[in-house]
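Researcher: Before we compare anything, I want clean individual predictions. No alignment, no superposition, just each chain on its own. First chain goes here; please echo the sequence and then give the structure tokens.
Model: Echoing the first chain and its structure:
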Amino acid sequence: MTHCIEENVDHLARVIAAGGPTPDDYPALAETFLRLHAACYTEVDGLSQMTTPIHRLELFLQQHKHIFRTTESMQGFAWSKPRGYAGDFEIIERIYDRMIADDPQLAAWDQFFHFAPGADAVRNRPGYIEGILRAGNHESLLSLGCGGARDLAVTNREGALRRITLVDTDADALGRAQENLNNPAIDYTIIRKNVLRLRDLEPVDLVWSAGLFDYLNDRLAIHVISKTRDFMNDGAEIVIGNFAKTHASRPYMELVCEWRLIHRTEEEMAALMTAAGFDEASVTVESDATGVNLFARAIK
């Protein structure tokens, strides 16, 4: 095992010495992270748990902190968590904007970050919710864990909705959401509160949550979905996103960025909905084009 770890860390060193990864390096680099991930993590209830710390890798990342521990790079920003939690609205907006550092070596790693299917899955969210809005007859929407609400910028178009309620615990995220959503025809309600403590909301036609449930265990997820059901009109729809267990960029995301999510299968997503009180016949689960983003949908 030690020999295997050394070989894989040595491969990372060669990539750095060459000036950073090029597209030709991506498949081998992904395999390197996969092997290192398998050597130290095991999955428990969808969440990776470290069983054997790889001190050689930790030392390597620290030795190259100008690449892996700087907020100037995508991976460094994700690792640093300057707002105190993983997946904050700033890293999500950097993903939407395909932010690339000016430094050539950092730029090479940023391009590798954006090539990952997980990053593409984030960027697919606006198109997915736009499809739902165009296909349905919704007048009101509740967004749980809205962050900067870039996924909902599609509602800035004319005739999208009449009312949007945005919920998040981060005041700055809500401030950014207000900047990103600027349709004068929509009545916005901003709520800074933990979703577990929501009370007495005006019923809506559509509940949307793109990136919250990856951080909630089954018990909390079922509680939130069940409680949210009380805020839905009859015939309203709820749509919750979650990364799939087949997420191919998971090893890199967890090893380098220390960004861990609760990954679920389609069956597990459906089970959350039925456990929260939705009729099984009304529940569907589908994915985006990457296969990374799962979306569980149910009708009240």
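Researcher: Okay. Second chain, same rules.
Model: Second chain and its structure:
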Amino acid sequence: MEIPIDYESLRVIWWGLMGVLLIAFAATDGFDLGVAALLPFIAHTDAERRMVINTIGPTWEGNQVWFILGGGAIFAAWPFVYAVSFSGFYLAMFVVLCALILRPVGFKYRSKREDERWRAFWDWALFTGGFVPALVFGVAVGNVLTGVPFRLDADLRAFYEGTFLGLFTPFTLLCGVLSVAMLVLHGAAWLTMKAEKGPVRDRARLYGMFAGLLAILCFAGGNLWAAHGDLGFRIVEGVDPAGASNPLRMLSEAAPGAWLSNFAQHSWMWIAPVLGYAGLAIAVLGVALAIEALAFSGSTLAVAGIIATVGLSMFPYILPSTIDPRSSLTVWNASSSHLTLFVMLILTVIFLPLVLAYTAWVYKVLWGRVTTRDVTSNPSMY
């Protein structure tokens, strides 16, 4: 079968699609996580908490589709990456899944009883379900940037030699704090649109401003660390963008500061960090002035810019190895076959627009502010 798109181009396309799916997940389910993380601090009465919960209640399940699509894309398009990351980060993923499970349980069970302690317990469970994934996802990205302690043997079997506590270093925790601050800002921007005008919305705006300023500081700190710290890898030889997927055919090495080399070679890539900073600044301004469209569009741009900055800085690396740089996984040596990528691309072209159209329709139908009067008068609300 003759494939009309060459192997190298398909690999780059799927690298880009993986980034799009991650951004879509962070931009949609991200504000759910941010709202949940804010819940105990911005809502002081039961009616206020129910109102906050119902700003995300109708859409949070649909937003998690992007998480599933992202995991599926990694599994199908980058099997080496899936095998190493999901086995190496197993405990971290288990913690995330446990936290995420608290969300549906909390939504469904919180209002089953009118006992104050019962509802307070589930409110903090929802907080955990928002805060913990946001933190661990950021820590995971930090570990990808610093490199992961794994190696491949001659039969391409992966061996992870790190520990769960080893995932938490000063730099990875900085990335975790950036992730939490970014998503809390995103959640606060969402609440400016969806919550009724009043004390809850005002508290969310206040927390959002602080979160946005913290995100700017953390993003700047991460960039300085990349420029002057010990982060970075570079390929020495053995690159074949159209060759068979075999990581052991490539030679790479640790190179502090190398994560900024792509920006020096391709000036257009600076669009990503500029979007990150500009989006954070716009979101903080929008939240401070209660300009809803400005706040949410700014936080969405910030999410896209920050995630794109990570991907562009690392290209073509996807998962570098610290203990055996030769085992590092890149766009060129860790993908599925030429035919698999092409068939998957056709399916994506067909079905992704349907997912986008349905998602847009759902948000249009469910649009509008949620008020405390709604939740106290409508028994179908959480």
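Researcher: What stands out in the second chain?
Model: The chain has a mean pLDDT of 92. Additionally, The chain has one domain: 7-366.
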